[in-house]
Amino acid sequence: MSRGRSESVLARRYSAGGATDDGRRPDEVIVEEPLEIRLDGHLVATTMRTPGHDFELAVGLCFTDGLLGDATVQSCRYCGTGPASDTEFNVVSVETGGVAPEPTPRLSTTSSSCGICGTAQLDELRMRLHPLPAHEPWAPAVLFAVTERIRAEQELFGRTGAAHAAACFDRQGHLEVVREDIGRHNAVDKVVGRLLLDDRLPARDRGLFVSGRASFEMVQKAWSAGFEAVVAVSAPSALAVSTALVADLALAGFVRGDAFNVYT
C-alpha cells in the first residue's frame, strides 16, 4: 500500500438556510486504522494512522524515538507471526537482528495527534542527542517557495480535507519527500523513515515542513533526523522553541502568504 487511503460515504449538505439538496451525495473521508509496530518481535506502540507507507512509519517512529540505538534496519515486514492478511496489514515488524536494545512499549494506544505523549523530556534529549553542526541561515524565499509547492502535493488532503502533510526540502526549496497522514506525527515519521531506508540521514542542508503546529514532538523528531530547520504553517509551543534553541535548529512558524515568524 503506497498511497494514503480514503473511502466514499454518503452525506447530506446543509447551510444556514437548511439542506442544499433533496438527497445525499458521495463524500470522500480519510481512513484511520491502528498500526501495531514491533521491533525485533517486541511491541513498541500501537498508533492510529492512515494506511500507506507503513514501513516508513514504523522505521521512522523507531528511529525518532531513539529505539534503534546504533542498530541498522535489516528488514521490515507485515505481521511476522503469520500471513499479513490475518492482521489486515495492521502489524509491522522492524528487524535489526536483535542488535537494537529491547524497547519499552508505550502503555496505551497513540492517537493520530498524540505523538510521544510526554514520554520523553528535553533533558533526556540532551543526553541522547548533540546540538546540530553550524549551518547557514535559510533564505526566506526558500521557505515561501516550500509552502506554495506543498499544496500541489497534498493529494489526500485535496480529496478529504483531513490529512496532514510533512515534507523534506533542500536549500533551493525543492521537495524531496512528501507524505500525508491523518496524524501530524505519523506524516513526519513517514518522511524520516523514507530517508533512513534510503541511507540519507542525517538530513544535512535539509528542512522539514509540517502542515500544522510545531509541537515539541515535531522539533524532537527533526532534531533526531538531523534536519537544520522546521517550517510550520501554524504556531510553535514554548517547549518546541526551547528544544530548537538547545538543538541549534532553525524554527519558523505561521509561514503563510508572504510572512512568517522566526523563533530560533
Describe the protein's architecture and organization:
The protein is an alpha+beta fold. The chain has a domain at 140-262: Cytidine Deaminase, domain 2 (3-Layer(aba) Sandwich), CATH 3.40.140. It has seven helices and 14 strands. It has helices at residues 54-64, 122-128, 140-153, 155-160, 184-197, 216-225, 238-247; strands spanning 6-11, 14-15, 18-19, 25-30, 33-39, 42-49, 75-78, 91-95, 164-170, 175-181, 206-210, 229-232, 250-256, 259-262. The strands form four sheets. It has a six-stranded mixed beta sheet, with helices on both faces. α1 crosses α5 and α6 packs parallel to α7 (238-247). It starts with 5 loop residues before the first strand and ends with a strand. 41% of the residues are buried. The model is unreliable at 114-120 (pLDDT under 50).
